[in-house]
Amino acid sequence: MTKRSKRLITLSVIIGVVIVLLVAGSLFRSAHHSHRISQQQSTLAASHSTTPVLFVHGWGAGLRSQMPLAKKAIRKGVAQKGLIVFVGPSGQIQMYGHLPAHPRKSPEILIKFPNAYIGEFKEAAALHKILILLKRNYHVTQYNAIGHSMGAYALTLQSERDGNSRLLPRLNKLVLIAGPFDGILNRHKWDQPTSGALSRLWDDHPGQNRLLANGQPKIKHPEYRLLMKNRRNFPQQAKILNIFGRVNNGSDSDGTVSVPSALSLGSILKNQVASYQVRGFSGRLAKHPYLETKNTRVQEAIMKFLWE
What we know:
Elements: H1 3-47, E1 53-56, H2 63-75, E2 79-87, E3 93-97, E4 106-112, H3 120-138, E5 142-148, H4 150-162, E6 170-177, H5 222-229, E7 239-246, H6 259-263, H7 265-269, E8 275-282, H8 290-293, H9 296-307
Parallel strand pairs: 1-4, 1-5, 2-4, 5-6, 6-7, 7-8
Antiparallel strand pairs: 2-3
């Protein structure tokens, strides 16, 4: 073999080794990059709560009012479809859907009351039954919840009555939107009752009430007094986000619930729970029915509170 041939062979080997090293390095960097992205995604997923979330509507509402926020949380990748719970006229409970034993995202549990006009006290009684079933049949040990209007009051009332019961899952985070904790504005609307016990819940009037220096309302309606009386029973580990709206029309309200009524909850639970936050929103989309369904700032605040 000539010297020239040997040099060519040596050069070819060197080139071949260089090519192999370059390819190997490229593959390693690609694998490392993919692994890093996978780790980041895993960390992101792990940082989100997988605790089931209950959606509780208020007077005259239903599943349709819960859907915008529920769908948005699914699109954001922090929640997944879980159960739809129907409460019958006689209080019977029917659940449809699936709750995985080890969810990677928060399963959503949407609750629909029979005719949307049963009121906050019957809603609270139904919630008690639902929570018992969730623990007994689905092994739910803790939960978060979002309540709008009377749904907010119902969740608060139920938590005071039975929130520490071993028969129920443990309350973790609670979002309360436009809760009528010290009455509802009597605006003589077509869907408010004019007789019976429920009609007495519309006992507030625009500009009539205000909060005192101690955070308590000047006028304490029966709904407020009931919650104040039982406040010591509220689960102390719970974290609360209380949201109110102000439509800037001079009524100091969201059109249905006055700001003093919504904020009066602070004097009841602020010193009873692990964390108590308040967020206020103003403008056209701060109207009572829009806070949960159309106000994207409210929706973002709720998702941040529950999942970040």
